[in-house]
Amino acid sequence: MTTLEQLETKHNYTFPPLFKTLFEKGKLNWMGDFTEPLEKGKTWAEDVYPTLKANPPLLLHSGGSDFELLTPKAMLDFEFPQAWDTNTHHFIPFAKTAEGNTYAFYDNGEETSPIVLIWEDDEAEYVAKNFEDFIFRKMLEAADDIDKDDLYADYDKDEPMERYRADLKADLESIRPYLNENYIAILEKAYAGEVLETLIAYGFMTDKPVKEIIKEMLDFDLMGEVFEHEI
C-alpha cells in the first residue's frame, strides 16, 4: 500500500494539511479496498464504483464527467513526459482529465501551494489558490453547464438530474467534515437549486452565476494565468 511518506519522498514535497487529512481518511483513493491492477474480468465501473457510492471519496461525482483522481499508486508511479521542464517547474500531479490533461500542485515557492491544470500542449494554467479552493471550485462547477449527453450516459433519461443531485449531495456529505462551513453552505444551496435546461445542457439555479461566485470568492493574483512548462 502506498503511503503518504512515500509520495512526499518521491515528489520531494510536503503536502498541505487538508490533503494529508483526506489521504489518511482514505478520501483520495478511488480504488477503495481494491488493488491495482484489477483482477482479470473485473472493471472499475462494475466492481469498484458500487462499493464507493455510499461514502464517496473526494469528487467522485462532483469532479465532472472527465475528471479522475490519481490513485496513490498512480501518483507514486507517475511518469513525467520528457518534454516537461521539471528542472524549472516542480509539479506534483494528483488528478487527470479524459483529454489527457493533468491537475497538479505547483511548488513555485509560495506558501499556498497553488493548483494548476497542465494542458496536453505546452501550457499550464493556475486554477486555484490552494487545495481547499480547488475542491470547492470543482464541486460548485458540478452544478452548472452539465452536458446532456454525459448526463444521459451516466444516468439514462429517467429523471437524470434528480439522480445526479443525489450523488452530488452524497459527495457533499462525505467532504462536509473537512471543508469550511461557508463553502459547505454555498454548495448545499447550489445542489438544492431548481433544475435549469438549455438545448445542450442542464444546471441548478444558483443565487449568482457560478463563474461570478468563483470570481468573487476564489480569485487571486495568478488565477487564470497561463505559462509554458516544456523544455
Could you give the topology of this structure?
Layout lengths: L3 H8 L5 H8 L19 H9 L14 E3 L2 H5 L14 E7 L4 E5 L8 E4 L4 E6 L2 H11 L4 E2 H8 L4 H16 L5 H11 L3 E3 L3 E4 L5 H9 L7 E3 L3
Antiparallel strand pairs: 1-2, 2-3, 3-4, 4-5, 5-9, 6-8, 7-8
Helix pairs in contact: 5-9, 6-7, 7-8
> Rg to the nearest angstrom?
18 Å
* Helix count, DSSP H or I runs of 4 or more residues: 9
Q: Which parts are unreliable, with pLDDT below 50 for 5 consecutive residues or more?
A: none
> Which whole number gives the mean pLDDT?
96
Question: Can you describe this structure?
Answer:
The structure is a single chain. The chain has helices spanning 4-11, 17-24, 44-52, 72-76, 131-141, 148-155, 160-175, 181-191, 210-218, and strands at 67-69, 91-97, 102-106, 115-118, 123-128, 146-147, 195-197, 201-204, 226-228. The two termini are 34 Å apart. The protein has one domain. The strands form 2 sheets. It has a 6-stranded antiparallel β-sheet with strand order 1-2-3-4-5-9. Strands 6-8-7 form a 3-stranded antiparallel β-sheet. The model has no long low-confidence stretch (mean pLDDT 96). The protein is built from 9 helices and 9 strands. Helix 5 (131-141) packs antiparallel against helix 9 (210-218), helix 6 (148-155) packs across helix 7 and helix 7 packs antiparallel against helix 8 (181-191). The chain is an alpha+beta fold. A hairpin with an 8-residue loop joins strand 3 and strand 4.
What descriptors fit this protein?
231 residues; alpha+beta; 16% strand
Short description:
With 231 residues, this protein is of the alpha+beta class.
